[in-house]
Amino acid sequence: MILGTCNSRTAGSPAVSEPSMVLRVECYAGHRGEETPRRFFLGERAVEVAEVLDRWLAPDHRYFKVKGDDGAAYILRHDGAAGHWELVMYDRTGSAI
């Protein structure tokens, strides 16, 4: 599980016993105040969000399907109540786009 928060803060998950890579997400808050990922870091590696392909809401999370500047597709999940981000899907070929 990969966790992180907006505004460049990082977080780990004490409930996860396996080692996890830190996901740090930098966001843009639009006119409605909704945070949209613009860049994220997988460990030390920065990935610029080239395009937000889709976004949807679940009862406890917000999801963003994004295309990175590396051509890969990612789905990022945000738990707004806890302020945590998770990487829930990665497709390096971009074929999930």
Give the beta-strand count: 7
Rg estimate, integer Å:
13 Å
How many helical elements? 0
Order of helices and strands: EEEEEEE
Strand content: over 45%
Number of structural units classed as domains:
1
Compute the average pLDDT: 79
Low-confidence stretches: 1-5, 7-19
Ends apart, CA distance between termini? 22 Å
Main beta sheet strand tally, sense and closure: 7 strands, antiparallel
Kindly report the spatial arrangement of strands forming the biggest sheet: 1-7-6-5-4-3-2
Summarize the topology.
Elements lengths: L2 E2 L18 E7 L5 E8 L2 E13 L4 E7 L4 E7 L4 E8 L6
Antiparallel strand pairs: 1-7, 2-3, 3-4, 4-5, 5-6, 6-7
Top keywords for this entry?
97 residues, mainly beta, 7-stranded antiparallel beta sheet, 0% helix, globular, disordered N terminus
Describe what this molecule looks like in 3D.
- There is one protein chain.
- The chain is mostly beta strands.
- The chain has one domain (3-91).
- The chain has no helices and 7 strands.
- Strands 1-7-6-5-4-3-2 form a 7-stranded antiparallel sheet, with no helix packed on it.
- The chain starts with a strand and ends in a 6-residue tail after the last strand.
- Residues 1-5 and 7-19 have low confidence and may be disordered.
